[in-house]
Amino acid sequence: MVGSIGVDNRYSTSYNNLKPNPGSDKWANTLAQTVDKDINGDADVNSAKKSTVMDSYLALSGSGINTFKQAYSEYKSENYRIVPDNEAECFDIYNKDGERLGVFSYSDVKIRQDAATGKQFLISEHGTMSYDALVVDGELKEALQNVMNKESLDVEEMQGFTLKTHAGTGIQYLVKNGEEGRGGKVLLQTEDDRKRYEELAEIYFSKYPNLIESREEGYIWADLEIKGMAKRTDQGIISMRADGMSYSDNENYKNNWNVLFSGSMYEMLYEWFQNNKDSMEEIRKFSTWQKIFDKIGGKYERVWSKEELEQGYLNN
Question: pTM higher than 0.85 for the full model?
Answer without folding.
Answer: no
